[in-house]
Amino acid sequence: MNAWDPTAPCAVPSCVEAFPRVGRARAAARAGALLALLLAGLAACPFTRLLPRRAVRLWCRGVVRAAGARVRVSGAAPGRGGLLLVANHVSWLDVALLASVRPARMLAKAEIRRWPVAGRLAAFGAVFIDRQRLRALPGTVTGLAELLRGGAAVAVFPEGSSWCGRAQGRFRPAVFQAALDAGVPVQPVRLRYRFSDGTPATAAAFVGDDTLLASVWRVVSVRGLVAEVDVRPVLGAGSHPDRRALARAAQPYAADPLHGPAGGGHPEVRRAGARDRRVPVPGASSPA
After folding, report:
1. Are 16 and 215 a contacting pair, CB within 8 Å?
2. φ, ψ at 122 (rounded to 5°)
3. Which run of H or of E encompasses 166?
4. d(Cα 15, Cα 206) in Å, to the nearest integer?
5. Judging by beta carbons within 10 Å of its beta carbon (0-12, 13-18, 19+), is residue 215 exposed, middle or buried?
6. DSSP assigned state of 2
7. CA-to-CA distance for 285 and 170, rounded, in angstroms?
8. Per-residue pLDDT for the chain (288 aa), expressed as one digit of tens each?
9. Selection from 8, 64, 11 nearest residue 41 by Cα
């Protein structure tokens, strides 16, 4: 394990709490609708550049809704020009939620290529990293900066691992160097999952040694899941002197009284996490 391969202490048995369920038939219908949308997206991938951004955003929200979650979005991101989108990481749904804010090139770990259907989708637009090759980090940052200079949006989960939602990790600063080098703004986004009554929901978390199929089935089985997307104020180019200061300013939970300071999280989760072994988390991640 190295700095490219950060892990979270969150695990399914200790962090994913009991949740209200829909019937198996309805869950299966959701799973079928989700698969149909993903296959439609895969078929449309060769023509992505011809599609209006609004269509891509609507498809991304449709993916989340097909999985059974309602989407609530507050705020908006700049629609044009180079932009680094950064968000906390909880679930495989995060990718669609972040792309619904603004379609972007996603920074993802190389293992995602092997995911069924989703891996093929990612291959059309993701920037893959091999976290076992630490020496490749400067080149990856340079490549991201070139994309940003060219006016592209790049989406990253700087925690490097998915967390359960009650706990969270700190934003690792390396990727923020790309925004500094390119002279583009950073758009922080806070992602949260709740039930319809407003209580936090951990059922969407994709953590620990959870498998993708198990996580998908859990999500489509949840009753009353709401995905909240809070687009925070943009951090202008040159607004912070270095990548560490920029990472701290972009941390989406920095002023969230529900979650507390970054890296802290819910006390019960911290106690449970301390008992769990640290294992690689199978979510999209970014360099440390």
Report:
1. no
2. -60, -35
3. none
4. 10
5. buried
6. -
7. 13
8. 555 556 667 777 778 888 999 999 999 999 999 999 999 988 888 777 778 888 989 999 999 999 999 999 999 999 999 999 999 999 999 999 999 999 999 887 767 767 777 666 766 777 777 666 667 778 888 999 999 999 999 999 998 878 777 777 889 898 999 999 999 999 999 999 999 999 999 999 988 888 889 999 999 999 999 999 999 999 999 899 999 999 999 986 643 434 444 344 333 333 333 333 223 333 333 333
9. 64
| pTM for the structure as a whole | 0.81
Tokens of 80: 């044009």
Helix/strand/coil for 207: coil
**Cα-Cα-Cα-Cα dihedral sign, residues 248, 252, 255, 256:** negative
**Phi then psi dihedrals of residue 150, to 5 deg:** -80, 0
The count of residues in the chain is 288
Separation in Å, CA 78 to CA 60, 63, 83, 106, 215: 18, 23, 8, 17, 32
Task: Write down the H helix ranges in 183-242.
Answer: 212-220
Q: Rounded to whole angstroms, how far apart are CA atoms 233 and 249?
A: 10
Q: What string of DSSP letters covers 38-53?
A: HHHHHHHGGGGGGS-H
Q: Are 53 and 79 in contact (CB under 8 A)?
A: yes
Tokens of 102: 């603004």
Residue type, 267: P
